[in-house]
């Protein structure tokens, strides 16, 4: 039987009484206990980041990650951020935090990141390590076949669910939501924004408690012409409008950081796959946008309509993995621009500065 955690509820579920979803959905489990999940985003950043420098970064990371304590899966992606910088991104997944900690000790990555050379030159580097208990994550997939993210790790299985098709379903899929409302320690106030002196500095950011991080993905390789046309001409523009609204209205939406990422092939060319990595002050703020704003309702209605139309023959895969962080997650930024990731929003310590 797949491993899962459930609590006796003290916080009411959001699922309407008698609800049955109109379209099938799936979620991730493991056939062994997985008490803690680790997802680490490594980035190189530059105003004019060309492929040779980006490739060299990936090659160096792969060399360091290729060990007995390395990750169970990894992917490479590219993002052009709001400040006009190109970011080369490698995400790595572990389901054993001790193995990850051992990798940090043995790989030499920390020493490389902290070296004086990283503080100089035209590139910045960042590392955002998401470490959460199992009960603070949830996943959903439109179909069971395609594997991505944590679903590529060992002993993972994708199982059918019925906790979908209503607003608040993502919250209900989080085991801890049965006993914790997951409120922001800032209440309804936004997290104060700062602009740290980050160029030439190695800064460490303590991410606020209950910040919610969502990776939402789209995969259309192999889709037939009709479904491909629908995605490119109808759904993708709706996704772009929604992301643009979040990026341009951060104080109102509670969006702290947003990266629109394209998955890469080995040679650096774009694949038929994208994902968005968003950080929000709380799950509640993400839910408010999802349930009430027209930009998300357009996405939601279209996705539901296509899944009802095609059912199990749906060829465009959509999915997400969501994490609600606890106090203690620390992100690192070396020689980055001051709007990178969580730099403007967390408690910042300076590790080293030229």
TrEMBL record:
GO function terms (MF aspect): lyase activity; metal ion binding
Full protein name: Aldoxime dehydratase
CC cofactor: heme b
Any Pfam family hit: Dehydratase_hem
Keywords linked to the UniProt accession: Heme, Iron, Lyase, Metal-binding
InterPro entries reported for this sequence: OXD
Family membership: Belongs to the heme-containing dehydratase family.
């Amino acid at each position: 039987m797949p491993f899962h955690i459930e609590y006796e509820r003290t916080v009411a579920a959001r699922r309407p009484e008698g609800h049955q979803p109109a379209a099938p959905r799936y979620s991730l489990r493991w056939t062994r206990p997985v008490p803690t999940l680790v997802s680490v985003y490594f980035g190189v950043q530059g105003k004019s980041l060309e492929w040779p420098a980006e490739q060299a970064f990936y090659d160096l990371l792969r060399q360091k990650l290729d060990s007995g304590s390395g990750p169970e899966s990894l992917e490479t992606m590219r993002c052009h951020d709001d400040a006009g910088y190109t970011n080369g991104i490698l995400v790595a997944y572990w389901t054993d935090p001790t193995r990850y900690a051992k990798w940090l000790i043995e790989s030499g990555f920390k020493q490389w990141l902290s070296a004086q050379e990283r503080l100089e030159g035209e590139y910045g580097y960042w590392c955002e390590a998401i470490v959460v208990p199992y009960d603070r994550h949830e996943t959903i997939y439109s179909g069971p076949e395609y594997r991505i993210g944590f679903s590529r790790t060992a002993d993972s299985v994708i199982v059918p669910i019925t906790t979908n098709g209503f607003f608040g379903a993502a919250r209900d899929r989080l085991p801890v939501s049965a006993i914790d409302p997951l409120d922001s320690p800032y209440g309804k106030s936004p997290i104060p924004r700062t602009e740290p002196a980050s160029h030439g500095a190695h800064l460490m950011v303590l991410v606020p408690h209950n910040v919610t991080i969502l990776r939402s993905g789209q995969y259309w390789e192999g889709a037939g012409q009709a479904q491909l046309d629908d995605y490119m001409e109808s759904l993708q523009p709706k996704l772009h409008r929604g992301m643009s609204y979040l990026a341009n209205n951060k104080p109102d939406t509670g969006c702290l950081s947003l990266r629109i990422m394209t998955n890469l092939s080995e040679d650096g060319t774009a694949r038929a796959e994208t994902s968005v990595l968003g950080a929000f002050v709380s799950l509640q703020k993400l839910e408010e946008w999802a349930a009430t704003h027209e930009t998300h309702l357009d996405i939601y209605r279209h996705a539901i309509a296509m899944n009802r139309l095609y059912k199990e023959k749906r060829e465009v895969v959509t999915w997400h993995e969501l994490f609600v962080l606890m106090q203690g997650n620390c992100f690192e930024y070396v020689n980055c621009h001051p709007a990178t990731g969580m730099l403007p929003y967390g408690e910042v310590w300076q590790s080293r500065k030229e």
